[in-house]
Write a structure and sequence with these properties.
Layout (H helix, E strand, L loop, with lengths): L1 H15 L2 H29 L4 E5 L14 E2 L5 H9 L5 E6 L6 E6 L5 H23 L3 H7 L14 H36 L3 H9 L2 H32 L8 H16 L3 H24 L6 H4 L1 H18 L6 H6 L6 H11 L4 H24 L1 H6 L6 H10 L2
Parallel strand pairs: 1-2, 1-3
Antiparallel strand pairs: 3-4
Helix pairs in contact: 1-8, 6-9, 6-10, 6-12, 6-14, 8-10, 8-15, 10-14, 10-15, 12-14, 14-15
Length: 405
């Protein structure tokens, strides 16, 4: 066990300390940081010039215009607003004259008001005009109360509505894409690392002190620890971003849209999908290590690992194609029990509600048994695979290596 952990530690530290791993992990966060930063700076620099001032003939009415998008109330005279517009501190101003019985509002600018802001202005003016009308009509309190009644509007959003469907699609595509890119990335790097060791004299020295099977298990365990660290950093970053969304400079309207969507996505995730991802990635990493141990020259790694890549592509495209049909079908059901593609297919069935807990457990059992058996079987034959240097082709190398005990 000590030897296995030593190999695992060495593999883990060598990979996580590399610049390639650091850039791969940090690149999404750097992209998000720069996108948000640029958006914030752009928004800050344009914030003043996008503002519209409100100039009132009666300053007691200013509370009626609070909360209107893209407006500011800091100019009390038309002359001050004109100067601010000339100095490009504001894009325009609205002059509201309440001296007569009918409110008059005039907008001065080179550009039109947005439909949202214009609608909010008209709503505020309409409420004020109604108050003026009631005051001039000399109505008694009961009549005023009757005229002041407002309609009631309620929203009862069903979980089967558009938000639910969008949440399913985001969960579906997000999970599938993450699985695909993680497997492609680490399958290639694992095969490359194993192939670079093949045929070197140092392996004979290592195997004289560390059993070949323990060395293989340590390698796989170390690579898997790297993958876990990678995904763990993404998970932690996602949690932090989720909790700090209000501080990212997003508008309230955007927040009202994004947060419910994220809540729906989280509702569709469960722990069984995590286990499917873990053992699915483990199985592909083991297969990639096997492919890497079969080549004689390092430049042949890409050709050797192609069968694994093809299986991943079949699982990825199959899950995307079949998962969007809106109904369960025989291909999706069968694929959800096949160990090499079940890590793509079964989570999609779970997200769409096509499979129950017992089906997920049965599929997961097949996947776990396959991954564990493949790991131990290849580990027992690892010495024969890694030490043979004859260029006899991949299939013959595989047969000879697996027959070595």
């Amino acid at each position: 066990m000590k030897q296995l952990l030593l190999v695992c530690k060495e593999t883990y530290l060598r990979q996580v300390k590399s610049w390639a791993f650091l850039l791969m992990v940090l690149s999404p966060f750097l992209f998000l940081f720069f996108s948000v930063g640029i958006g914030y700076l752009t928004g800050s620099s344009a914030a003043n010039t996008d503002k519209v001032a409100i100039v009132l003939s009666d300053n007691s009415l200013k509370d009626s215009f609070k909360g209107i998008d893209d407006t500011t109330l800091r100019y009390e005279t038309q002359a001050a607003a004109k100067k601010a517009r000339k100095d490009e501190k504001i894009s325009g101003y609205v002059m509201v004259d309440s001296s007569a019985s009918v409110l008059e509002a005039t907008y001065h600018s080179d550009t039109s008001l947005s439909d949202t802001t214009k609608g909010q202005f008209l709503q505020a003016l309409g409420i004020l005009q109604s108050q003026f009308n009631m005051a001039q009509a000399d109505l008694n309190p009961d009549q005023v109360a009757t005229l002041g009644q407002q309609p009631k509007f309620k929203e009862n959003i069903s979980k089967t509505g558009d938000l639910e469907k969008a949440g399913k699609y985001i969960t579906f595509f997000g999970l599938t894409m993450i699985m695909y890119f993680v497997i492609i990335t680490y399958a290639s790097s694992t095969a490359q690392e194993i192939a670079s060791e093949k045929g070197t004299k140092i392996m004979e020295v290592i195997f004289s002190s560390v059993p070949a099977n323990l060395y293989f298990y340590g390698r796989i365990l170390g690579i898997f620890a790297v993958i876990t660290t990678h995904l763990g950093i993404y998970a932690l970053g996602g949690v932090l971003i989720y909790h700090f969304l209000p501080q990212l400079g997003m508008s309230q309207n955007l927040m009202d849209t994004v947060k419910p969507m994220l809540d729906t996505v989280i509702d569709h995730l469960d722990w069984s999908m995590l286990f499917f991802a873990i053992f699915g990635i483990l199985l592909y990493v083991v297969l990639a290590a096997l492919c890497g141990s079969l080549v004689v020259r390092v430049e042949d790694v890409n050709k050797a690992v192609q069968p694994v890549i093809y299986i991943v592509i079949v699982g990825f495209i199959g899950a995307i194609t079949l998962g969007q049909q809106g109904q369960d079908n025989i291909l999706l059901t069968i694929g959800s029990y096949l160990p090499f593609i079940s890590s793509f297919f079964m989570p999609i069935r779970l997200i769409n509600g096509y499979a129950g807990n017992w089906e997920a457990l049965l599929s997961l059992l097949f996947l776990v048994v396959t991954a564990v058996v493949a790991t131990f079987y290849i580990g027992k034959s690892y010495a024969g695979l890694i030490l043979q240097t004859d260029d006899i082709g991949l299939l013959k190398s595989l047969k000879r290596g697996l027959n070595h005990k």
